[in-house]
Amino acid sequence: TTVDIAPGVTLLPQRLPAEAQQALLADIRRIADEAPLYTPTMPRTGKEWTVRMTNCGPLGWVSDRDGYRYETTHPVTGRPWPQIPETLLALWDEVTAYPAPPECCLVNYYADKARMGLHRDEDEEARDAPVLSVSLGDTATFRLGGLERCDRTKSFRLHSGDVLLLGGDNRLAYHGIDRILPGTSTLLRDGGRLNLTLRRVNPAG
Ligand code: MD3
Ligand code: FE
């Protein structure tokens, strides 16, 4: 089943069965062994994010004192990012109609108290490409607004195994994660939530 939550925003509840979630989690653990989760800092202030991050793919999204950008290497290890797992590349092909593969898979880890403030994903040149999000672990309350920061917002829950496709009219909509609901999933041994966002950065062709 699919749920249209706004124009261009489609929720695929429980798109990944339990076994697929386990397999994907194993892929992410392998990625985090090679490219450890680290605590990014905010532009200008240097304040720490509550979310820990890593990436896979040719490009990784990073945030530090100098701003937001895509980089080919991990900011701590200096090594190239690991490859995007085949299962995620296949999911992108199944769910998006985009004629080129994603270049970045941003991995966000939320411990119990982590959150992500309202923002837009606007660092990608390929604005025609959707963003594909996969949730694993504890349930999160997700907030979706409009194209202007002051637009009214709506809240939704994202559960483990849910896939969210963000494109079309709302590709540049404001969104954020208000809170994690601890203890709502047993997938992650130590609790918390992983979110994977697949992004195309450079226009296809
Ligand atoms: C709605 N991550 O990494 S994913 C992010 O759950 C980010 O970790 C959140 O926002 C998370 O930038 C939310 C869902 C998401 C991603 C991109 C969007 C929602 C979006 C782009 C436009 C509108
Ligand atoms: Fe975002």
TrEMBL record:
Cofactor dependence: Fe(2+)
Cofactor binding note from Swiss-Prot or TrEMBL: Binds 1 Fe(2+) ion per subunit.
GO cellular component, one term: cytoplasm
Residue numbers binding Fe cation: 119, 121, 175
Keyword Kinase carried by entry: no
Fe2OG dioxygenase domain: residues covered: 101-202
Example GO molecular function: broad specificity oxidative DNA demethylase activity
Biological process according to GO: oxidative RNA demethylation
Domain of life: Bacteria
Positions that bind substrate: 61, 68-70, 123, 149
Matches recorded under Pfam families: 2OG-FeII_Oxy_2
Positions contributing to 2-oxoglutarate binding: 108-110, 193-199
Keywords: Dioxygenase, Iron, Metal-binding, Oxidoreductase
Protein name listed in UniProt: Alpha-ketoglutarate-dependent dioxygenase AlkB
Originating species: Pyruvatibacter mobilis
